[in-house]
Amino acid sequence: MFIFIWFILALVSVVVALFQVIAFSMKKTGMFKCFGCIGSIGGCVGFVTFILASISRWSEAGRACSGEFWAAQADWKVENEVDGGFDYVAFEESCQTGPKGCAFVDGVDEEGNDVLTPISTTYYTGLFLNVILIIVWVSIGLGCCCSCCGMMMMSAKMKKGMEAKGNSVNQDSQNATTNPM
What we know:
Radius of gyration: 30 Å
Number of helices: 5
């Protein structure tokens, strides 16, 4: 669901950017600012969605749904009176080797083959979302570091410019007082 929301936000961002280019070329500053506002709101919604996806994926329930706890349950089988239990080992194997993703055995057909009922693909999407979240968080961190470095370099450049400008102003004022016209 989060990836779908990000996809929609990416489409909105592209459309808003196109309208901003059109507004800029027509020299319509009001339209340009309006589409800039819409783009900013889209960015904020995307960031909030990203935070919610991080909370959902790295929470206890998200970790359980993505199959992180299967290694701890290797020999564990849930017993109930109706069907003899739920075999987590077989379920994990179906997620890793099954052609349709995760499935559980729902009986046996006439030929003696297991009838698999697909129930979820969260094993793969959990890993996929985990990778995307890590990449985006690292990108945000690198972007912040690059912004800070850029601001420090700009500050040093501005300081040099101000000193050079101050020296030229002082020289001009000295020349004006020593060489009255």
